[in-house]
Amino acid sequence: MDGDGDGDGDGGTLCSIGELARRTGLTVKTVRFYSDRGIVTPAERTPAGYRRYGPDAVARLALVRTLRELGLGLDVIRQVVDQELTLGDVAAQHAAALDVQIGVLRLQRAVLAAVARRGHTPEEMARMHRLARLTEDERRRLTDDFLTGVFTDLDGGDVYAGPRRSLTPELPDDPTDEQVQAWVELAELILDPGFRASLRRAIEDHAGHLSDRGCGVPRPDVVALARDHATAALASGTAPESPRADQVVAALTADCARVLGRPDDGDLRRLLRQRLANANDPRRDRYVHLLALINGWPPPEPLAPALDWSVTALSLRTSRA
Fold first, then answer.
1. Element (H, E) at 51
2. With DSSP H G I counted as helix, E B as strand and the rest as coil, what are the percentages for the chain, rounded to 5?
3. How far is it, in rounded angstroms, from Cα 310 to Cα 312?
4. Contact in structure between 280 and 304 (CB atoms under 8 Å)
5. pTM of structure
6. Is 296 exposed, middle or buried (0-12, 13-18, 19+ CB in 10 A)?
7. How far apart are CA 42 and CA 50, in angstroms?
8. Helix 193-213 vs helix 244-260: angle between axes, to the nearest 10 degrees?
9. pLDDT in tens, 133-158
10. Angle, helices 193-213/136-151, rounded to nearest 10 degrees
11. Each residue of 210-256: pLDDT tens digit?
């Protein structure tokens, strides 16, 4: 007979399965399950076949309950309670496994949050999911392919090693949810052929700038000069079509003429307008913003407002020339 009687046994030294359940807060069914699996074993059986458990059973079941709540499997739990594995080793292994699960959950959350925020087709969502699950090596290859397409075969050679590094995302080993979401969106930009072509045009213009000078990178370049002059104009409330903007444009073109080593004339203004328009892609600002989030850098100031102002101001004054 294989009974589980609920009477007290052996003067209180041993306890029944019912008493053990009461002491541990588990159900009789659960205690019997653990007993059948050999995780907690009866010290003896009565002549009638009832199981009786020793004092150590309460402590074993308390440990089992905690380990189960932490997500450990029964086979591992049996090895822990039987001291075949140390609790510290098991805890370290399980913590590492949880880190992996947490990483997967973060990626899933990032994809779902992006879909909820911006809306995507099923095909776009599937692509985002693939991007989120890329390994570190796969992310690096994707980024390298993008930046190689932007920077290869440009005049200036090693001059662009620094800018290339400055455009490289480095997702940390333990990224925040925000960093994961930023990576997914940045990867979508990397895969956008229109953005790659736009950035390439802006870099080619900069390479032409170097050829104009016939030397290393001049500082500042025309985009940086436009940013500085236009930012000051925006801060003062100067509209690009206002008479006050005439002085700003004159100062900008004079500085650019000096940097480029060419006359300050209508041709220069048309050249500047084209180069600034090529550099003025809102996707570039978004890329740099996402890059800062991923790499843990301070948030950059957007370039688009200053370039919008500069292109408009130059266009108005070039048409008058």
1. strand 51-52
2. 70, 0, 30
3. 5
4. yes
5. 0.64
6. exposed
7. 9
8. 70
9. 788 888 899 999 999 999 887 765 56
10. 50
11. 554 544 444 568 999 999 999 999 999 999 999 999 999 999 999 99
Burial grade of 5 (CB within 10 A; 0-12, 13-18, 19 or more):
middle
Which residue's entry shows tokens 């189960």?
68
Q: How far apart are CA 64 and CA 86, in angstroms?
A: 14
Q: Which amino acid is at 267?
A: D
Quote the tokens at residue 26: 């588990």
DSSP reduced 3-state for 82: coil
DSSP lists the bridge partners of residue 15 as 53
The CB-side HSE value for 245 (13 A sphere, CA atoms) comes to 21
Residue type, 115: V
Alpha-carbon gap, residue 298 to 43, rounded angstroms? 64
End-to-end CA distance of the chain: 109
**Two structure tokens written together for 274:** 């084209």
What is the number of residues in the chain? 321
270-to-265, 293, 310, 315 alpha-carbon distances in Å = 9, 36, 12, 8
Instruction: Copy the structure tokens of residue 75.
Output: 């086979």
∠ CA 171-175-181, rounded to 5°: 80
- Alpha-carbon distance of 75 to 68, in angstroms, equals 11
